[in-house]
Amino acid sequence: MALKINEECIGCGTCVESCPLDAIVESGDVYIITDDCNECRACVDTCPVNAIVD
């Protein structure tokens, strides 16, 4: 199951900086995880609002 960024996203961009594959991109005021994600979960612990879920 792929990781997703839910509606709790505040658009801070912290997850983008933590992704080693550049699989998180801006989409309007928030971010989305692309199919390039290998589910390493590096972004999960960096999200200040726990918006990244399985």
Topology overview:
Blueprint: E1 4-5, H1 14-18, E2 24-27, E3 30-33, E4 52-53
Antiparallel strand pairs: 1-4, 2-3
Can you walk through the features of this model?
The protein is mainly beta. It has a single domain, classed as Alpha-Beta Plaits (2-Layer Sandwich). It has one helix and four strands. The strands form two sheets. A two-stranded antiparallel ribbon has the order 1-4. A two-stranded antiparallel sheet has the order 2-3. The radius of gyration is 10 Å and the shape is globular. It starts with a strand and ends with a strand.
Topology as a string of helices (H) and strands (E): EHEEE
CATH architectural grouping = 2-Layer Sandwich
Tally of helical segments: 1
Q: Count the strands? A: 4
Summarize the structure.
By secondary structure, the chain is mainly β. The protein is 9% helix and 22% strand. It has one helix and four strands; from the N terminus they run E-H-E-E-E.
